[in-house]
Write a structure and sequence with these properties.
This protein is mainly alpha-helical and 297 residues long. It is elongated and about 95 Å long. The chain has 10 helices and 3 strands. A 3-stranded antiparallel sheet has the order 1-3-2. 8% of the residues are buried.
Length: 297
């Protein structure tokens, strides 16, 4: 059976082939752009978390400034205000001017006995810190909990290491909106170290093994069942038409490469260096990343 050559195909068939090639090229470009958007969304989520922390810090500093203003007012010290000279120190300047313009006869010389009889003033550590311009900042609750864990013995049933929980997802969602939905489910977002979409209609959450049981319980209370049989290394999740010509072994290797790329991106967004190293070591123990990749972390 002799198949007709490309030259013997009718014009509509040639046009159809050209359209298919054009659509394939567009799909590749869109896929690349989608990956860039996902990376930007992850960066945006990290920046929003940092912005939230900064806003909390600003609120605490404003409260401390207001408290200090009240204490200065109660103690009779002049508060900063903008006067007729147009500077915040104008009130102090007016006091200095008034003192300087007072007649010399109004100034009384202190005798040695009056100075010796005056009780010595003590300088506390808090007042010294204020003089040095340093103010203590109230730590966040999660920072207190993290510091306390350093000085507490690990539970006997503690399970070191980390794991991904895979959940069904109707569609891809931006990380800030996804974390907002996790907060609605009463999930501690700071315990979720990474979120990504390893396959269509699947979302992955990276947590410590000790928090995994609590996380499953919260999902169960909301009627959500994790995907216990999901394998991120299965080549069927590649879903890329450019890879149809690869062999089975090549597809397996490609799936591993894609998975490693996701894990390396996840490690970059873990701000705590000790936690980042611990997660990377766990990934290496699972053979998800190589020892060379571990040394680069």
């Amino acid at each position: 059976l002799n198949l007709p050559s490309a030259m013997s195909l009718p014009n509509w068939a040639l046009d159809f082939q050209a359209k298919l090639r054009q659509f394939d090229e567009q799909f590749v470009r869109y896929n690349d752009r989608l990956q860039e958007v996902e990376s930007l969304a992850e960066a945006n989520a990290r920046l929003q978390r940092e912005l939230t922390d900064a806003q909390q810090l600003i609120s605490q500093l404003q409260a401390e400034v207001a408290h200090l203003h009240v204490r200065m007012t109660d103690s009779g010290l002049p508060a900063l205000s903008v006067g007729s000279h147009g500077t915040s120190a104008s009130r102090y300047a007016s006091d200095d001017i008034a003192t300087a313009s007072a007649p010399a006869s109004a100034k009384t010389n202190k005798s040695y006995s009056s100075v010796a009889a005056k009780p010595a003033t003590t300088t506390t550590s808090s007042s010294a810190a204020k003089k040095n311009g340093k103010r203590s900042r109230k730590p966040f609750p999660r920072q207190v909990a993290s510091a306390a864990r350093q000085f507490t013995a690990a539970p006997e049933d503690s399970d070191p290491g980390f794991q991904y929980l895979y959940l069904p997802s109707r569609h891809k969602e931006t990380l800030p909106r996804l974390r907002a939905k996790l907060a609605v489910l009463k999930i501690n977002n700071w315990r979720v170290l990474d979120i990504h979409f390893p396959a269509r209609h699947v979302v992955a959450l990276l947590v410590h093994n000790d928090y995994a049981s609590d996380l499953r319980a919260l999902f169960a209370a909301a009627g959500i069942t994790p995907l216990s049989d999901f394998d991120p290394l299965d080549p069927k999740h590649l879903d890329d038409p450019r890879l149809v010509s690869l062999t089975t072994d090549e597809l397996v290797q490609k799936a591993l490469s894609v998975h490693q790329g996701r894990l390396q991106r996840a490690l970059k967004f873990i701000r705590s260096i000790p936690i980042r190293h611990a997660v990377a070591a766990d990934f290496c123990a699972r053979a998800w990343i190589s020892e060379d990749q571990l040394r680069e972390i």
